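Reopening closed ticket. The problem is back. First fold of the pair:
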Amino acid sequence: MSDLPVFIHVPKTAGSTLNAALVAHHASGPFAPAWRALPAPLRDNSVLLRRLGPSMGGGLPHAGHYEGEPEKLTRLLREARWASGHIQRRRFAPMAAVAGRSPRWVSVLRDPTEQVASHYQWWIEIHERGWLRFRRYPPFFRDLSRQIRAADNSDPEAVIPFLALHHTLFLNLQADYLMPEGRETPVEAMPEALATFAGLGLGSDIAPAFRAMTGAEAPPLPRHNASRSRFDRAVFRTERMREFLAEHNALDERLWALAQERRG
């Protein structure tokens, strides 16, 4: 099977920035000036990136969009020079195998509390970005957004119930995406699983992930998809929230610590 660099895109970990950089790096010939000529908001658009990725960037960003079309996904993965998506490793591996590709895993990790806070804010953000963006989401997520926007988001006792009820959406998400058995991966198996990654960005330093995906040094990378909505993340720095996350987001805390040790 031929090698395929695969970027596992955990939500709210600078993945949009990396996707845009990958398309820009692989754009060649007439595509390169065309990409540079696009206004910044368009280069920041996930729908446009998904559509231009295969033709302009030689890759398959947002591969999860094609999960409902397995034959098309297999064809695209066979042709791709790289792939990325909001897809857990345990789900991506068999997709790549069907396409005859051997995945070379790459990802970006973020401080666990920052990742949870940013992901929580995202469900406010989708409404602030306009009606068209909001309507792209299924009714379940639009309703979740309404509930979060109506809550007292300065009070940890109001925020924690959302995190607890929707724990598969918010908690231990990085471990769920990167570990071979997701949240069921034994803690003692995490170091070996982490060592299988060819490149791992940490926080705002996504250069190791770019290098592993391209073999090139990263250029200056402008930030994409930054939050624009009003939300005070101080609630995630309260003692009550820290206690909650220490218990219920412990797998991500452990994964983050291991990644920092590995980097050191």
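Second fold of the pair, where the issue appears:
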Amino acid sequence: MKELIQQNKFDELKFALQNSNSQLKIHQVLARALNGNHFEETDYGFEANMYQEEFLEGFDLYKVLNKSEIPQNQLQEYKIALTFLVFKMGGFIKLLADKTMQQGLYLSQVENVYKVDPSLRKELQAFIDLLKETNDVQAIANASAAKAQISLSVADLLEKYEIGQDMLQFARGYEDAGLKDEATRIYINILSDFECESAKTSSNLFPEITHVDTRSNEEIEIFEKAKSRFETITGANLPTIKRVRPDDDANAEKLVEAVDKHEISLEVEENYPISFWDRVKRFFS
């Protein structure tokens, strides 16, 4: 099929799709789009247990279609269907992750029941990047939200900053789509979780205190970007907090050890610490 698309042989492609034995609904969607049909979301027929396979195949075709001479109205119809599929997929994977978390397990621990394809997040990002080329703000917002949901669902397999990057993209997608209040809440949650631990536990009654900053460079960058966007949206200026990196101050390194011990004791005492990820999951609910 990809060869036919690359050769712009769309009549032959329609014939191949109509006579295919494929069980994937995305092939049927493409065939109908090539016929110039417009259909509603309820007409797509995607099945939850096949969302990942449908998307990976659908996006593989979209990458080729995007470089072809397909009429724009047909490409748009196909893109709308693919974006809808992505959004449904994100919600479904999040639902499964929430269900397994209720049982005290991560989704990655029940791969015999359902497994998230390791390439899924990368392919989703590639789709979002293509959407950004045409500045389709609504599609970008939906796809970014889906990727954030999926990243939260496999959080145990990712670095914290990777999830933070997806949350920033999610917030900016909503911001650009005009959902400023929702974007502001996401930025607030990012700021809360990506602040250094010492500042988090401070009452801020003594602003002259210097806080030990043990965050990675990637986490600091995420915090600063969220801070910048939050201040831009709200017009508010967040207070300046004095921080020092352990690498820059020998005394700070000693404080780090004390802070680590304090955090360990807090984790033991707290039965269910409320984290950023918990707040975001509630936000999606």
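Update: turned out to be a display glitch only; the data is intact. The first helix runs from residue 2 to 6. Confidence is low (pLDDT under 50) at residues 262-274. Please close again.
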